[in-house]
Amino acid sequence: MSETVKNFLYLNRRAPYGTIYAWESLEVVLIGAAFDQDVSLAFVDDGVYQLTKGQNTAEIGMKNFSPTYAALGDYEVKKIYVEQESLDERGLSLDDLQHLVWEDEDEDYAEKDSIKVVSRAEMAAIMDASDVVFSF
Amino acid sequence: MSTLHTVNKSPFEKTSLDACLNHLGSGANLLLIEDGIYAALKGTAVEERVKTALDSVKVYVLGPDLKARGFSEERVIEGISVVDYAGFVDLAAENDKVQAWL
Fold first, then answer.
1. What pTM does this model have?
2. CATH number for the domain harbouring residue B20
3. Site from A48, A49, A52, A136 to mutate, B interface, most B CB atoms within 10 angstroms
């Protein structure tokens, strides 16, 4: 395996369930987690809807994959960026989203927040700084 | 002729909702399904546009799709009725035709 470590950004811009993009993106993140790269997730535009709390898919006959976001910390995915302006346009606040955490083994497995709400300008800078961007 | 219009895409992803609203005749009914349900929620950038439509047409939203995406009925704009799949069937049967906006 190569020693080069790259910054990977998974860019999510679509709502869950109406199309398969949100689920496919998560699957690629989980598969990619096996390759020890530096992974960040970005949720922009309708992508912010993927992280809402309380998803219950029983009546639409689809698998509820929202618990998978909560498991990301266990896969060492702890940089999850959510765009403020995208939340604002949709009348959402951080409180509407799942509380995603990761455990810092260097600090006695203390729970830390994985989600960072950033401005559109900050998001642009994050994209610019990434070596690779996967768009979904 | 009464038409049931359905919109299944998010108003932020596609212009389908806007196109539909621009073509509603009097007596039309609009049902928001799948990702289209996001237009039924309070506090969004399209809320006013949707509220204006309520002045002339009946607007419905599919409950199961709201719940799947994590939203309860309290988050729905006042005046929009929440229906389940049985209600969807009733609306389709009551109207002369169904026009889907994709």
1. 0.96
2. 3.40.1260.10
3. A49
